TrEMBL record:
Signal peptide: none annotated. PANTHER family: FAMILY PROTEIN, PUTATIVE-RELATED, GLYCOSYL HYDROLASE FAMILY 19 DOMAIN-CONTAINING PROTEIN HI_1415. One of its GO terms (biological process) is chitin catabolic process. Pfam families: Glyco_hydro_19 (PF00182). This is Glycoside hydrolase family 19 catalytic domain-containing protein. It comes from Acinetobacter tandoii DSM 14970 = CIP 107469. Residues 72-153 form the Glycoside hydrolase family 19 catalytic domain. The lineage of its organism: Bacteria, Pseudomonadati, Pseudomonadota, Gammaproteobacteria, Moraxellales. GO terms for molecular function: chitinase activity. InterPro entries: Cell_Wall_Dynamics_Protein, Glyco_hydro_19_cat, Lysozyme-like_dom_sf.
Amino acid sequence: MNFKNLQKTLGVVVDGNIGRSTLTALFKKLGANQSWAEELALASNVHFKDYAILYNELRFAHFIAQLAHESGNFKYMQEIASGAAYEGRKDLGNVMAGDGVRFKGRGPIQLTGRANYKKYGQALGIDFESHPELVATPSIGLLVACKFWTSNALNELADKDDVLSITKKINGGTNGLNDRKANLTKIKGWMS
């Protein structure tokens, strides 16, 4: 697996350096519209290095595969369902009336629950608890995904190629495991 093969697959300049043009082509190939692909690529180009996601191909492949599943192949930055199913979920910090809808899944990692919006907002210096809609902005959502990824030690699990444990950390269970595995296989294949 290597980044040059990914660039060949995407039809971009083959130099082994993952930058905005490669990332834009990747997000677009996975399903994002042009505008979101460009915005996600801009944010990724900055944050992937800061969060050590570009440290190796395995980390990169796992991160992209998981986010592709969570966001419907980068077509949705907000959960399609209303979020009412999360109402009263104390495990998510949804303790006030309307929290389920207000703090439904957003961003490419589908951050969910008042507690997570508060936690990651405080960690990044952005008041997501007062402005949860900000997480649905592709660039901000990508930053949140990076912070979530490293805060939950997912780089280390990616280094072990442990898709099951990564899925459990992101999803709380194994929802969509087969799709996540298929995404991972596809992205690894593009780098082979």
